[in-house]
Amino acid sequence: MAPTAGRESWLDGTESSGTTPLETPTATPLATPISARSVRWEKDVEDAAAGALQRPLLYKRGTNTTSQMAIVGANTCPIESLDYEIVENDVYNQDWRSRGKLQIFQYQVLKWVLALLVGVVVGLVGFFSNIAVENIAGFKLLLTGDLMLQNRYLAAFELYIGCNAVLAAAAAALCAYVAPAAAGSGIPEVKAYLNGIDAHSILAPSTLLVKILGSVLGVSAGFVLGKEGPMVHTGSCVASLLAQGGSRKYGLTWNWIRYFKNDLDRRDLITCGAAAGVAAAFRAPVGGVLFALEEVTSWWRSALLWRTFSTTAVATMVLHALITYCRGGHCGLFGKGGLIMFDLSSRQATYTATDLAAVVLLAVLGGLLGALFNFLVDRVLRAYSIVNEKGACYKIVLTVTISVITSCCTFGLPWLTACTPCPPELASKCPTIGRSGNFKNFQCPPGQYNALASLFFNTNDDAIRNLFSAGYDREFGVSTLLTFFTTVYTLGLLTYGVAVPSGLFIPVILSGASFGRLAGTLLGSVSGLDPGLFALLGAAAFLGGTMRMTVSVCVILLELTNDLLLLPLIMLVLLIAKTVADCFNKGVYEQIVRMKGLPYLEVHAEPCTRSLVAGDVVSGPLVTFSSVERVGTVVHTLRSTGHNGFPVIEDPPFAPAPELCGLVLRSHLLVLLQGRIFTSDRVKTGAAEVFRRLAPFDFAKAGSGKGIKVDDLDLTEEEMDMYMDLHPITNRSPYTVVENMSLAKAAVLFRGLGLRHMCVLPRTQGRPPVVGILTRHDFMPQYIRGLYPNVLPR
Amino acid sequence: MAPTAGRESWLDGTESSGTTPLETPTATPLATPISARSVRWEKDVEDAAAGALQRPLLYKRGTNTTSQMAIVGANTCPIESLDYEIVENDVYNQDWRSRGKLQIFQYQVLKWVLALLVGVVVGLVGFFSNIAVENIAGFKLLLTGDLMLQNRYLAAFELYIGCNAVLAAAAAALCAYVAPAAAGSGIPEVKAYLNGIDAHSILAPSTLLVKILGSVLGVSAGFVLGKEGPMVHTGSCVASLLAQGGSRKYGLTWNWIRYFKNDLDRRDLITCGAAAGVAAAFRAPVGGVLFALEEVTSWWRSALLWRTFSTTAVATMVLHALITYCRGGHCGLFGKGGLIMFDLSSRQATYTATDLAAVVLLAVLGGLLGALFNFLVDRVLRAYSIVNEKGACYKIVLTVTISVITSCCTFGLPWLTACTPCPPELASKCPTIGRSGNFKNFQCPPGQYNALASLFFNTNDDAIRNLFSAGYDREFGVSTLLTFFTTVYTLGLLTYGVAVPSGLFIPVILSGASFGRLAGTLLGSVSGLDPGLFALLGAAAFLGGTMRMTVSVCVILLELTNDLLLLPLIMLVLLIAKTVADCFNKGVYEQIVRMKGLPYLEVHAEPCTRSLVAGDVVSGPLVTFSSVERVGTVVHTLRSTGHNGFPVIEDPPFAPAPELCGLVLRSHLLVLLQGRIFTSDRVKTGAAEVFRRLAPFDFAKAGSGKGIKVDDLDLTEEEMDMYMDLHPITNRSPYTVVENMSLAKAAVLFRGLGLRHMCVLPRTQGRPPVVGILTRHDFMPQYIRGLYPNVLPR
Asked: Measured between alpha carbons, how far apart are the two ends of chain B, in Å?
């Protein structure tokens, strides 16, 4: 976590790598021949002008400090929108027509090779982090356990707390100094990326490295956090790196690789990566696909289903093969596990009405506690961000503090419970000594076990396995479970905001399982269901209550437990818990996306936007280019605005009257400028001239932060007075709406097709051919609320 | 199946319930003040006119008789496009603003209630058809078996063949006379519906009834067909009936129910219904959701995932509860079964490289045979349609013929194999006498069994269970399996086109399982895998090869077998089989959709359409209305054209110059005409006048075939000379494209938002404000190919 004072972060750079806040700028009009102010439909111009001037003020007022807090180092990260529209300019058309069958085949094959490669790499990473955690945490627990056996309790405590603090500090230092974007779960950021918001460095190589190492250190440090969320982020980072699509630097510039250098193919691969992350974390290939579909992506195509599934399948198989190899004892302390994490088969498949009533009660309570968890997480994150904003050192101190609190709880609380004598029928298994097992000896005399230590003094995975375990009902008493539940719920809340990669799955499953087992133990007299089954259902209820996922959580739990007969009960619990929790607040990931101020486009436009039209939200003055434009004007515009797309107007002598030629992108203008394809007279040069000097590859989208910058250009005065023909790089088919299109319907179009720019056309004749441009931020409720406080009440 | 001579069916009625073939008509221009011919971009007008005139001819030429064959009674069924656009006219806006919180809550609750109700009903229907089939077929087999035991073989054969023929004839008669649309699988039609094509009577109550009864009769008749495909159709029909949303006739006209009377909510519910059908057929709730997502729907929203899942969960639970009840012996011959169809656990989870190689070989062969199956199904359907076109009697004769052939094969072929002595270790189970069991006695002496009869002389479900059964490897010999595979593969091909409701899942699974077991038996020396496992993988390979589904088939097979450890192998097989088969042809359902000539919109526009622009495909003359129009003109236009949407032009005195006001729908015009909201002068009356006389409910979309017809209107000469104000019913925000938008991108917009009409705007000024309308058929490759044979080669 790297909370910083960037509360207007996405305002500062939504559509640009530059400095001007808005796409439709408030900067002074330029020397462009045609430039039009938007006229708001059925409103007089004076009013519109006032609105445009007031906007930044109102906007700031509408978005108070806390609601716009950007937690992941946002003040240093400009946010850029992604563009899923095909830029149909002459370059693209000529390029597309020249594609041979071989190139198309290569492209198809490479798409698959990349997807499968993502699967392999994510599987390997998942294996590495599993093995590293098991070895580091296992070694730590073994050493402490040895000291405990020698009755050197203080030394054991010091060792335990020290190890944890050092591991936590290392993780926090990595996050604070190397890659602040690696803190937290990463799922909200990936969700935002797949919605079209590219927060700088969120998928960078440094983030990937820190995410993997930090996650291993964080989990080993005994925090109540998981490595599942970070695996999703890791998977996306891996996919993003592989999707860069060739590199000039390393000579990887085959012609056909350029087809990958676009946001659309990158998005597809990152979807595969996110799914593979879940698949590798839970060893659940189908669950991974459904997770990506239900929670992460904003757009989905049927073709993607198949590719995503292959990726998750490969990731799972790689992991499975390596774990099978490890079963031979080749991997240090890592010996257990398999494709199924918790093998809980042989449950009963029949249940009575009382059982069902108990399960419904559990689901309702799970939903309520889940909603409360979301509410509290929000508060904790806001409080932490004040600390974290102060600097890297503060982050580390906060992390170490939480680590110490966690260590004290996990080591200290078991002392409060009395030792339980081992049941005679389990003499062979109780008490267990060493790494895992249900019946931890801890400080107890031989023949007895400490129930609370069996849960606390363990890795989180083992604690969950113990909670899910069936058979011996009275293993954990009511007080044990109550203490554990309260502690884990609180620690889960306190841990999420610290500066280490931290997933929410494990804390939620832990709390849910302990709560479920508690409920099962309490309801033992009325319900005949196993407390282990209650623990599983409790976990489902909490997952439904916090994350609001249904199908994917259901399938993940099924894949974890390998028992399809549990399906009806799990579904029932998930549906009830989600419904109950939805009455109070949003899912935890959506909530974090909002809190970070990322301009996330919702599926449904706010209903009140039906009262507004597209023309109401575009603001002037609009910057346009003539189809053959003076170089100096272009350079000056690019320098003085942060806009990314400019309408191109065809005007005399190229057309009898001004008409819309299309839309040109900043990046393409820069390529043309750098290529110096200028003429001294105002004439069309055509695409042939461009192709003579530049390859289609030159126009492909560069990796983030790698494109040409306007300040890199070094043009002479003479060149500045020349003309450049924009026709070859103008997208001739931009999506357009008429100014009196209702804003809600314009939003459906914008969101549905994944656009970055949308031209607004005049309704009446005799006006400029384009009256404005709509971008992502024009659809944000905060923005509209600032403009029209009465139309869109909070 | 009801093939008829309707080969231009969708040409004849794509956009209308009237008679004119094209939305943009070839009829003579009307007395409408503003009417514009489309001008094709960068082409001269003469050429465009020629194109427009030639079109119908070219179109017919481009679509030869066979490729446009409409198999499901298409000559009597006009096809109508569905409209998922929100019609934002004054009526809607006023209506929407008047919605209270209570109404919105009622709407939300009802949406859920309907979805869950669909689940309950589909679960009940699934149970009914299971129990009916088991009892009818079981009784038939028991009677025949009794005669066999008495060595009265000829009588047994006569009884068997007679029962089958009678059942087949009954099913065929129902299909031929009552509801021709009920023949076949129904999945292609549901797929087309969810793509926006409403073929008349495809979801009608009569179709539902015949589908259920016909499916029971067909399966009981011993055909090689399944009840799974029909279950999907049944589920959709049930959902469609429930989604009608209130009825005036029965007084169900609460205000809030009208919000359901639109294509969008109906589409969502039908998606739920289709998923519930799969869930009930295979008792696979997750598989049902994925099936709907992967194969059936064209649009998907995250919100739908949850609702669909609830529906499938309810359907599965209802079925499960009833089957549990039946286990007590309350349901006649239906005693077996449970949530898991084939309980095949306890397979080995490890496999060697040789095993993998054998599996890959199986998958490749499965893919090849699957592609061959699709090719042959196409040929058989084309051949059958010639017979079926001749009339209902021919349909019945064809069905009975196939029934007799099937009976001869299933009864006759077992005589060709020698009896096998029962293995001594299975003395208790072999030979089995009665309904089910692996070791059918048939004509063999006691202590021996007929391997082929165990497969043939059984219901299809039992045959699959026998093929999947593990443990005793040498149960079925190579010759047995080879005979069975060849017969089933051929009969499956021959059966699909007959006039009974027939699913493709069972024939494909049967062929695949027998082929897989054959391969497993042959490869027994090199691979240590169980032949039952090979049978399962063979079924997966065939399903992947014919239906080209991956994730859903995988999950369905997992839910059927309840063994997640098989996942990696099943995935591998599916991916290979699909990839291999995709090299040859399309999936079987897509192929049938194409063959029926349904105007299905593909996700990807044909790449060559990038060379065309929107203006190239619109044809003139365009029929438009003035915003306040003479009643006579409107009535005459509605009578003489079949168009469904008309651009409305705001012209003097209501605007200084003609401008686009919006789009008006035929159905709304008819409501206004019937309400007689006319004025004697050409003035705006406004929405208030409309609301004084009509309720918003009057404008809701009527159930199919129920709306007002233009011929129902009875207007006097005086009324015909009055004026009507179209403003209140004009959709002010129609989606528009500029005429030089590339056709490919226009198609993305059209498909992405699920539109029915799209206005084409002029690029240059000084022309009419709208130059054409694009509808579904303008994006059909056949149509474009007819216009531009060189641009879009076959």
From this structure: 29
Q: Nearest by CB to A765, which of B555, B763, B765?
A: B765
B765, A766: Cβ pair inside 8 Å?
yes
Phi, psi of B63 (to 5 degrees): -115, 95
The CATH number of B353-595 is which of 1.10.287.130, 3.50.30.20, 3.40.50.720, 1.10.3080.10?
1.10.3080.10
* Distances from the Cα of B659 to the Cα of A618, B316, B412, B687, B765, angstroms: 21, 55, 76, 20, 11
Q: What token pair was written down for B264?
A: 């969008």
Q: Supply the angle between the helices A228-242 and A505-522 in degrees, to the nearest 10.
A: 150
CB contact under 8 A, B660 and A302: no
The CATH topology of domain B9-70+604-787 is CBS-domain (3.10.580)
Return the residue in A90, A564, A566 with the most chain B beta carbons within 10 A, the one to mutate for interface testing: A564
pLDDT tens digit sequence for A518-537: 998 898 888 778 888 899 99
Instruction: Please return the burial class of A139, using the count of CB atoms within 10 Å of its CB with bins 0-12, 13-18 and 19+.
Output: middle
- Using the beta-carbon criterion (under 8 Å), do A551 and B610 form an inter-chain contact? no
Domains A100-326 and A353-595 share a fold: yes
| Among candidates B603, B659, B735 on the partner chain, residue whose Cβ is nearest the Cβ of A301 | B603
**Smallest Cα–Cα separation from A181: which of A155, A159, A200, A168?**
A200
Nearest CA in chain A to B770: A763
Nearest Cα of chain B lies from the Cα of A39 at a distance, in angstroms, of 16
Q: Looking at CA atoms only, how far is residue B547 from chain A in angstroms?
A: 13
Q: Residues of A41-68 as b/e, b for ≥16 C-beta within 10 angstroms?
A: beeeeeebeebbeebeebbbebbeeeeb
Distance from CA of B627 to the nearest CA of A (A): 15
Report residue B116 as tokens. Answer: 């869950």
Convert the pLDDT of each residue in A69-123 to its tens digit: 333 333 335 788 888 888 888 888 877 777 777 777 888 888 888 999 999 999 9
Question: Between the CA of residue A573 and those of A524, A539, B286, B636, what are the distances in Å?
Answer: 18, 10, 16, 59
Distance from CA of B559 to the nearest CA of A (A): 7
Alpha-carbon distance of B264 to B274, in angstroms, equals: 15
User: Which among B96, B571, B732 is the nearest to A285, CB-wise?
Assistant: B571
Q: Give the containing element (helix H, strand E) for A630.
A: strand A628-630
- Residue pairs spanning A and B at CB distance below 8 A: 178
Cβ neighbors of B712 (< 8 A, separation 6 or more) are: B674
The chain A residue lying nearest B743, using CA atoms, is: A733
Whether pTM > 0.90 for this model: the answer is no
**Which ipTM was obtained for this model?**
0.84
What does A387-441 look like in DSSP terms, one character per residue? HHTT-HHHHHHHHHHHHHHHHHHHHHGGGGSPPEEPPGGGTTTSSB-SS--S-B-
Return the number of other C-beta atoms located less than 10 Å from residue A330's C-beta.
10
pLDDT given at position B336: 56
Residues from chain B that touch A343, judged by Cβ atoms under 8 A, are: none
Each residue's pLDDT tens digit, A714-733 = 889 999 999 999 999 999 99
Residues A613 and A41: beta-carbon distance below 8 Å: yes
The structure tokens listed for A337 are 């596990």
The domain segmentation of chain A, as residue ranges, is 9-70+604-787, 100-326, 353-595
A664 near A645, Cβ under 8 Å?
yes
SS3 for A175?
helix
Give the CATH fold of the A100-326 domain.
Answer: Clc chloride channel (1.10.3080)
Q: Which of B572, B610, B753 sits opposite A96 (nearest CB)?
A: B610
Under DSSP, the state recorded for B18 is S
DSSP classification of residue A68: G
| CB within 8 Å of A677: residues ≥ 6 apart | A685, A689, A690, A693, A694, A724, A725
Compute the half-sphere exposure of residue B263: CA atoms within 13 Å on the CB side of its CA.
20
